[in-house]
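Q: Convert this sequence to structure tokens.
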Amino acid sequence: MEGYDALLSRAISKRPDFETSGERFVVPKLRTFIEGRTTIWENFEEIRETLNREADHFVKFLLKELGTAGKVEGNRLILQGRFSSEMISSVVNAYFEEFVRCAECGRPDTKLIKYDRIMTLKCDACGAQRSIQKRKQRSSSMPAPAPAIEEGKSYELRIDAVGKKGDGIAKVDKFTIFVPGVRSGDIVKARINKIDGNLAFASKE
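A:
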């Protein structure tokens, strides 16, 4: 089984890589990590600037497609929930195709203009224009959010309390996790052995 560091390195190495007419348009590598019940997208602002779109518009699309809440803090985007780099990359890809790439020449040299309440994508390279259809729901191709914890996987847990039977208790999303042999306040790496509803049973590694 791959270690945590190896899995993390592989996840953050993913990046959208788009073909344009005669060249490749490359978005910087996504740098994300999971912190408790949230996903931190460290270089959100760098990627937004590469796409050359307003933060409010980009964020609104991301949150709708991921089905979550979030906010921008400095150069970072904080997402409620646990999302893989691959999942976020697929949403960035969808945004690029719909709101950045010219349908005629394939170049990203475009801008969004509103004509009589109709959003239009205008290409500065070839002059082509196309209207943007209002999205009514999340893309059916979007994968479901990854579960907060899974059996057989290991996670870093903060022990918030100790139960009557002496087991440590940690909380992750909707799950209450029991870990024997730990003390309140400990931060431990533990393997999830069994999940039963909202309860999970783990062992310290």
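Residues 34 and 40 are 6 Å apart (CA to CA).
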